[in-house]
């Protein structure tokens, strides 16, 4: 289609160690608390879309 984009590798990766153990546990706990707050703010911005 004439685009001048090339696919590039970012070099960014998540080490296996970050997906298990204490780091994974803390992430899961944080995500549990974060989700209700995000929904709360989306509801405020959208006039209750997710109620």
Summary, kept brief:
The chain has 51 residues and is mainly alpha-helical.
Indicate the topology.
Layout: H1 21-46
Shape: flat
In terms of per-residue confidence, which ranges show pLDDT below 50 for 5 or more consecutive residues? none
Helix/strand-derived category reads mainly alpha
Number of helices: 1
Strand content: under 5%
If you compute it from the alpha carbons, what radius of gyration comes out, rounded to the nearest whole angstrom?
Answer: 19 Å
The count of DSSP E runs of length 2 or more, i.e. the number of strands, is 0
List the helices and strands in order: H
Q: Largest sheet, if any?
A: none
| Straight-line distance between termini | 43 Å
Mean pLDDT: 84
Helix content: 40-55%
Can you describe this structure?
There is one protein chain. The protein is an all-alpha fold. It has one helix and no strands. The termini are far apart.
């Amino acid at each position: 289609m004439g685009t001048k984009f090339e696919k590039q590798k970012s070099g960014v990766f998540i080490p296996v160690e970050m997906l298990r153990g204490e780091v994974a546990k803390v992430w899961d706990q944080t995500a549990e608390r974060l989700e209700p707050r995000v929904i709360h703010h989306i509801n405020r911005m959208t006039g209750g879309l997710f109620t």
